[in-house]
Amino acid sequence: MARKDTQGMEVLIAVYSTQAADSICSQLAANQLHYLRRKIGSGDNGNFLMSLRNFGEEVLVDSSEMERAMQIRDEWIKTIDNYKNDNNSSGKVAQIPGENKGTILAARVISALVIAAMVIWYVVKNQ
Question: What's the predicted TM-score (pTM) here?
Answer without folding.
Answer: 0.59
